[in-house]
Design goal:
single chain; 18% strand
């Protein structure tokens, strides 16, 4: 089954920030805009590389009580493992660099 990238309400703002797009250019249900980013290993990741798959962009901030709750409980790791086991691509975007949260 071929799947298109579609935006949810939260993804509109997240992708606008990540891709440097103006938020008004993005609409819920629209195809996600192309972007590239550098991963923690220094490799370039491109959304186009994952065309046809579901992609989750998880924003992670170590100082966030909500984030800590779901990681300490193991809930987030279980979600990641369960969905990636079904072929979903899961990227965690670290937004908690010291002084840059």
């Amino acid at each position: 089954m071929k799947l298109a990238f579609r935006l949810t309400g939260c993804a509109v703002l997240a992708l606008a920030l990540l891709a440097g797009c103006a938020a008004q250019e993005l609409r819920v249900g629209a195809a996600a805009p192309e972007f590239t980013a550098t991963d923690s290993r220094g490799q370039t990741e491109s959304l186009a590389h994952y065309r046809g798959k579901f992609v989750v962009l998880e924003w992670h901030n170590q100082g966030c009580p909500f984030t800590r709750k779901h990681y300490v409980s193991g809930n987030m790791q279980a979600l990641q493992q369960g969905w990636t086991g079904k072929g979903v691509v899961w990227f965690t975007v670290i937004s908690s660099a010291p002084g840059k949260q």
